[in-house]
Amino acid sequence: MSLRDDLAGVLARDPRYSIHAYLFVFEALEHAKTLKKRARRKTKTRPSSSGGSRHVSGRELCEGARSLALAHYGMLAITVLAGWGIHKTSDLGSIVDNLVNSGDLERSPNDSLTDFDEIFDFDVALRRDFLLSLDDVI
After folding, report:
1. 2-58 residue pLDDT tens
2. pTM above 0.85, yes or no
3. If you write DSSP's letter for every residue of 1-22 in order, what string do you get?
4. Which range marks the domain in which residue 13 is found?
């Protein structure tokens, strides 16, 4: 069975987000794990022995999603995400919660849906790197 088939039940229970939003969150999760691993290498710190090395926090996932959206969609990132139903970081949390409830993701005992609340303002975080001066346009 494909991931698309696996997500059919999730989409039926919560139609606010398109399948693309769920696929983006899976990709953002992997991206956030990669960013975390790189940061650990830079500081030469070891993952904890509790097995939490592959776990990312709500903040880390949101930052990974921001980074990934800008890398993939550039100036259109906010428009693309909005088209999928993602307008704020709490939407990312709702998608993760849906995936946890369906058994597609797991949460740690310290995880909470509120971990995704107001991590950053989408309008600021997804547009700030694209200010163009008139000299650049002309």
Report:
1. 666 778 889 999 999 999 999 999 999 999 999 888 887 777 666 554 444 578 999
2. no
3. --HHHHHHHHHHH-TTS-HHHH
4. 3-45+56-137
| 123-136: burial string, b at 16+ Cβ within 10 Å, e else | eebbeeeeeeeeee
Secondary structure letter of residue 120 according to DSSP: S
| Measured CA angle at 131 (ends 130, 133), to 5 deg | 135
User: Is residue 79 assigned to a domain?
Assistant: yes
Q: Are 36 and 61 in contact (CB under 8 A)?
A: no
Domain count, the chain: 1
* Helix (H/G/I), strand (E/B), else coil: 55: coil
Round the CA-based radius of gyration of the chain to a whole number and report it. Answer: 16
Sign of CA pseudo-dihedral 4, 9, 12, 17? negative
E runs forming strands in 38-104: none
